[in-house]
Design brief:
The protein is of the alpha/beta class. The chain has a single domain, classed as P-loop containing nucleotide triphosphate hydrolases (Rossmann fold, 3-Layer(aba) Sandwich). It contains nine helices and five strands. α1 crosses α9 and α2 packs across α4. The relative contact order is 0.21. Bound molecules: cytidine-5'-diphosphate (CDP). Cytidine-5'-diphosphate binds next to α2, α4 and α8. The site of cytidine-5'-diphosphate has 15 residues, from α2, α4 and α8.
C-alpha cells in the first residue's frame, strides 16, 4: 500500500521533528528532502557545478556531517532555486513518496509538486521569532557559534528566496492542513499531526 504524508513549511518550523515522529509511530519510511538540497549546496560550496552535483548525488552524501550548518543551509536555498537541480532530484523523491509501506517526506514542495496525490498534507508553521529561537538552540547544541540575530536573518533570507522562486515555491497546497506550532510543545504538535493521519487512515478502512 502506498500512503504518503507530505509535510511542508518554512525553515525551522518543526517539519523534521514531526516527520520523524510520524514515521516512527505509523511505521513509515521518512525522507528529509532538505538534505538533498543541503548536500547539493555543500558540493557547490566545494566548487562543483550545482546541477552536476544534484545529478551525481548518492545516498551516502546525505550522511555528511556538516549538512546542518548555516552556510550549507544558505547554499541549499540558492541551488534549490535552479530548476535543473529540482528536476534532477524529482524522480528519487517521487519514487520514495509512493514506495510500498508508507512514506513521510518533509520539505517545501512535497504537497504541491512532488506528491500532489499525497493522502495527508500538512503545512507546518510557527512565528518568525519562535522558529529563530528553536533553530538557535539547535545550532548552539550542535556546536555552531551563532547569535540569535544571525539565525533570524538566515531564516528570513531563505524563506524569502524559497517563497519568491519561480519553480516550486514554498506555499501550502490548497488541501493542506495548516498547523501553527508557535504555542505548541513537540508532543502537542506531533499529537495534532498524528490525529490527522489516523483520521485519514480510518476513513480508508472498509466499513464493518
Ligand atoms: O531545516 P530547515 O527547515 O531549515 O531547512 P531544510 O528543510 O533542510 O531545507 C534547506 C533548504 O533547501 C531550504 O531553505 C530550501 O531552499 C531547500 N528545499 C527546497 O527547496 N525544497 C525542499 N523540498 C526541501 C528543501
Amino acid at each position: 500500500m502506498a500512503f504518503t504524508i507530505a509535510i511542508d513549511g518554512p525553515a525551522a518550523a518543526g517539519k523534521g521533528t514531526i516527520g520523524r515522529a510520524l514515521a516512527a509511530r505509523f511505521g513509515f519510511a521518512h525522507l528529509d528532502t532538505g538534505l538533498l538540497y543541503r548536500a547539493t549546496g555543500r558540493r557547490m560550496l566545494g566548487g562543483m557545478d550545482a546541477v552536476a552535483a544534484a545529478r551525481a548525488l548518492r545516498a551516502e552524501d546525505l550522511d555528511a556531517e556538516d549538512l546542518r550548518s548555516p552556510e550549507v543551509a544558505l547554499a541549499a536555498s540558492r541551488v534549490a532555486a535552479i530548476p535543473e537541480v529540482r528536476q534532477a532530484l524529482l524522480d528519487f523523491q517521487r519514487a520514495f513518496a509512493r514506495r510500498a509501506g508508507g512514506a513521510v517526506l518533509d520539505g517545501r514542495d512535497i504537497g504541491t509538486v512532488i506528491c500532489p496525490e499525497a493522502e495527508v498534507k500538512l503545512f507546518v508553521t510557527a512565528s518568525d521569532a519562535e522558529r529563530a529561537r528553536r533553530r538557535h538552540l539547535e545550532l548552539l547544541r550542535a556546536g555552531h557559534a551563532v547569535t540569535l540575530q544571525e539565525v533570524a536573518e538566515d531564516l528570513r533570507q531563505r524563506d524569502a528566496r524559497d517563497s519568491a522562486r519561480a519553480t516550486a515555491p514554498l506555499r501550502p497546497a490548497p488541501d493542506a492542513l495548516l498547523l501553527d506550532t508557535s504555542a505548541m510543545t513537540i508532543d502537542e504538535a506531533v499529537a495534532a499531526a498524528a490525529a490527522e493521519v489516523s483520521r485519514v487512515l480510518a476513513a480508508r478502512q472498509p466499513a464493518g
